[in-house]
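Page 37, continued from 36.
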């Protein structure tokens, strides 16, 4: 009979004391056979009891104190090169409800998955996108009421995030955050610091002013609002407009400015209403931030007269479009990029002056990212949209300190006392002059990325495109300073549009991602149990659709109702469990060992992929999928699963 989720659940109910004991005694690095949908239902008491038996009372007491920090497993590393060997798991916290459930999910992950990437942790804007951060506050929806009831001192989402990072470290993993060089178009950051963003003035659908200093008019309008409506915290206005908006040596702290304009951080509804009122005040006079763009030409926009939406608050939003669009040009209407450079000729021709960085913008984002990294103890950053390269002439031969904000942020955090802070770049290794100006590979070296996402997750395993790209990745890992990832699935590819990529080759992907040390790897939460989706599943089955929150029923392909629905692919879970069990047995012998290639992918093959490589002197791995002939093995066969084999040769 075929394996079902019900069969697995029944087996867990019968034997869970044995499986828990294997983990708690240190025999295994994870709880065998534990389904993720079961793990995230554990009570706080149950999880704490499991971890205390595994980690010990002293370490647990330290980890659960938000005033203390558990040392990172990579503390002492002199740079971020350790990330090139990482087996990373990406988690969209919104799919599991709270930071605390990250720990529950981690009980299902073996130690070979040594890094946890948390998708954006910030308070999102009105559109609900995790990548449209509206403030530097931690997202309140990730707060666990159950955790606070059990441990009353953990009564804020910040404290809960701190102890979760502590526990991730205590469990032997590193943890990373998203660093986002943009915000919601009307974020608190943009309204408190207009000079750090580009603003435009429109008259209905006509763009009447996009010059360098529109932000000064915006400051005046916000100042008027402040006098008309009073301060949010009730304090008297005893300072001038220039003092309030100063980007030089401020007499008011950033915290004070946010209190004055929006109110207390914990008053989410009050802050939201205040911001909505201010947005309405600004747009009534025709002022709004310039929306963020992707891919060349990046700049040169106009408003599309008949393309607009009216939101739930009655606000009209016009769509922008490029004056001279190219293949991958895209406008992200809900977002605004920081103004990292001043413009040439008062922005008359939409050109930037890369010799004149907007220094306060660089300082602001570096300081805030560093403050977050220090407060919670993050080990690396995923640099969102790291492929952005705005210079039409391409990557400069000798990039200066203001070449790229993500590069500068990495160096800033390292220089401030965290040399091991690593940089995982979101780029797709696209051809030159498509996703960015110039050569993206050169750009990755110029920004000092340690690893990059790549795009193997958006290719059918065994196709000619997959084989060619994998060969390219192996060459890059051998010849460049960064390492591309062997990416299994990401949170933004677990999407109905990409179902075709995961109907075949899943076990090949997972096997290679674990056992090929030459490339780091990345897999998204839920892959181990993901449905095959021969036909489109319900929206609630895709993690990508929880990156944003859309309630507009006109967008039926994106609307979700209720919580994330875990997959029911029991056969895939069982097969991946076998691979994980085997990995536990040999991991100490293969981790960090050199690779000797026996058979690399055939770039001319179009109907399958066949690989063979030796790790160290002891193990030979072979993997084949599709029509490709399985590579010949040598030595004693010690593991086999769906065309993937391991031989002992030493």
């Amino acid at each position: 009979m075929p394996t079902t989720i019900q069969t697995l659940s029944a087996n867990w109910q019968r034997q869970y004391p044995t499986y828990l004991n294997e983990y708690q005694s240190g025999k295994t690095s994870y709880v065998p056979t534990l389904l993720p949908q079961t793990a995230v239902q554990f009570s706080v008491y149950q999880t704490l009891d499991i971890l205390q038996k595994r980690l010990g009372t002293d370490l647990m007491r330290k980890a659960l104190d938000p005033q203390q920090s558990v040392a990172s497993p990579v503390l002492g590393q002199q740079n971020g090169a350790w990330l090139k060997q990482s087996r990373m798991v990406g988690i969209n916290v919104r799919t599991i409800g709270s930071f605390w459930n990250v720990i529950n999910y981690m009980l299902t992950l073996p130690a070979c998955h040594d890094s946890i990437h948390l998708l954006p942790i910030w308070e999102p804007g009105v559109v609900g996108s995790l990548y449209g951060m509206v403030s530097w506050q931690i997202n309140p929806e990730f707060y666990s009421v159950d955790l606070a009831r059990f441990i009353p001192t953990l009564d804020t989402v910040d404290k809960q995030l701190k102890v979760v990072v502590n526990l991730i470290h205590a469990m032997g993993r590193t943890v990373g955050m998203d660093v986002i060089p943009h915000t919601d178009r009307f974020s608190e950051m943009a309204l408190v610091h207009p000079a750090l963003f580009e603003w435009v003035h429109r008259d209905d659908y006509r763009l009447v002013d996009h010059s360098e200093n529109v932000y000064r008019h915006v400051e005046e309008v916000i100042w008027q609002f402040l006098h008309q409506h009073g301060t949010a915290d009730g304090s008297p206005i005893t300072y001038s407009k220039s003092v309030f908006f100063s980007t030089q040596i401020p007499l008011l702290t950033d915290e004070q400015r946010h209190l004055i304009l929006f109110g207390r951080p914990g008053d989410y509804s009050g802050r939201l209403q205040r911001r909505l009122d201010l947005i309405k005040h600004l747009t009534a006079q025709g002022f709004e931030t310039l929306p963020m763009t992707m891919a060349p030409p990046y700049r040169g926009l106009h408003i599309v007269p008949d393309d607009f939406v009216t939101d739930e608050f009655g606000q009209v939003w016009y769509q922008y479009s490029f004056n001279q669009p190219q293949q991958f040009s895209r406008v992200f209407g809900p977002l605004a990029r920081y103004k990292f450079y001043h413009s040439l000729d008062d922005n008359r021709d939409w050109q930037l002056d890369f010799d004149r960085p907007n220094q306060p913008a660089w300082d602001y984002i570096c300081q805030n990212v560093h403050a977050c990294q220090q407060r919670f103890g993050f080990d690396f950053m995923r640099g969102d949209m790291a492929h952005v390269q705005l210079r039409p002439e391409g990557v400069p031969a000798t990039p200066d300190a203001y070449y790229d904000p993500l590069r500068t942020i990495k160096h800033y955090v390292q220089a401030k006392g965290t040399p091991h802070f690593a940089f995982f770049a979101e780029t797709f290794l696209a051809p030159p002059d498509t996703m960015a100006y110039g050569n993206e590979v050169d750009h990755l070296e110029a920004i000092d990325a340690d690893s990059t996402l790549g795009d193997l997750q958006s290719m059918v395993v065994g196709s000619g495109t997959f084989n060619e790209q994998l060969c390219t990745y192996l060459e890059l890992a051998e010849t460049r300073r960064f390492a591309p990832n062997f990416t299994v699935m990401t949170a933004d590819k677990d999407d109905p549009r990409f179902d075709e990529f995961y109907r075949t080759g899943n076990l090949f992907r997972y096997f290679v991602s674990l056992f090929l040390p030459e490339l780091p790897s990345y897999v998204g939460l839920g892959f181990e149990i993901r449905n095959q989706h021969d036909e489109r599943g319900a929206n609630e089955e895709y993690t990508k659709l929880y990156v944003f929150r859309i309630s507009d029923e006109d967008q039926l392909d994106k609307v979700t109702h209720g919580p994330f629905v875990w997959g029911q692919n029991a056969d895939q879970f069982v097969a991946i469990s076998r691979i994980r069990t085997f990995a536990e047995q040999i991991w100490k012998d293969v981790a960090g060992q050199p690779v000797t290639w026996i058979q690399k992918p055939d770039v001319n093959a179009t109907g399958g992929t066949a690989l063979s490589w030796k790790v160290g002197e002891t193990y030979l791995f072979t993997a084949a999928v599709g029509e490709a002939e399985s590579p010949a093995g040598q030595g004693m066969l010690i593991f086999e699963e769906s065309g993937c084999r391991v031989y002992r040769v030493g």
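Residues 188-357 form one domain. Flag for discussion at group meeting. DSSP finds 19 helices and 27 strands in the chain.
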